[in-house]
Design a protein that fits this description.
This protein is α/β, with parallel strands linked by helices. It has one domain: Rossmann fold (3-Layer(aba) Sandwich). Helix content is 52%, strand content 17%. It has helices at 15-26, 33-46, 54-63, 91-100, 104-120, 130-134, 148-161, 168-184, 206-220; strands spanning 4-8, 29-32, 66-71, 74-79, 82-83, 123-127, 140-145, 197-200. Strands 2-6-1-7-8 form a 5-stranded parallel sheet, sandwiched between helices. The chain has a 3-stranded antiparallel sheet with strand order 3-4-5, covered by helices on one side. A hairpin with a 2-residue loop joins strand 4 and strand 5. Helix 7 packs across helix 8. The longest helix has 17 residues, at 104-120. The radius of gyration is 17 Å and the shape is globular. It starts with a strand and ends with a helix. The structure holds cytidine-5'-diphosphate. Cytidine-5'-diphosphate is lined by residues 11-12, 16, 33-34, 37-38, 94, 97-98, 101, 127-130, 178, 182.
Amino acid sequence: MSFAIAIDGPAGAGKSTAARRAAENLNFIYVDTGAMYRTIGLYMLEHQVPVDREESLRKALDEIRIELGYREGIQRMFLNGEDVSDRIRTEEVSAQASVVAAIPAVRSKLLDLQRDMAASQDVIMDGRDIGTNILPDAELKIYLTASVEERARRRYQEMVQKGAECSIEEIRKDIADRDYRDMHRETAPLRQAEDAVYLDTSDMTLDEVVAEITRLAKEKM
Ligand code: CDP
């Protein structure tokens, strides 16, 4: 029997970094579902697909083949065979990812892929609807969040470290807009599962968050 940890929460709460490190501690596979939505968003941007037109959207979705690979334990995203892991990390793709994530046909395309990954191996999967929709029977669910200010500050530092030019005000606005879209959409909106542990990381260091996730997992194993 495999063990699943579902981590949900808003943009920039530090889910991916914390989940990746906790997965290393526990020897689990880390699955970043946001990267899948980003990959679909990237395709739609690059092919200028009018995603609000059903026919165009369906045609595009049929042409998209998404695969995950792992290199030195790090997840890589492949779009029709091409490694797009770095190209999906721009602010433009972030915004487009949250637009396409509200479309039911997009979500159902990814649902089986995500469930299959958790069926055969121990996973930590992060996203918006993992505990509520994708893996409702996950052994451990965590809702990871932090204040908008703190999330904007972290995202800003991350971008600056990568050498990207950006304004903290714009990032703050982008995060607030995405929170709104993710929480108010009809299909699989972001919300805390009833049986999820609520973890506000505003005043926690990354090491503390990783230690807490690892501790909660070991308690259940
Ligand atoms: O890294 P960050 O928290 O900024 O975002 P992400 O996890 O890479 O996800 C990008 C976008 O995909 C989010 O804003 C959501 O709209 C969407 N998403 C989703 O709807 N469901 C998921 N399970 C994961 C991501």
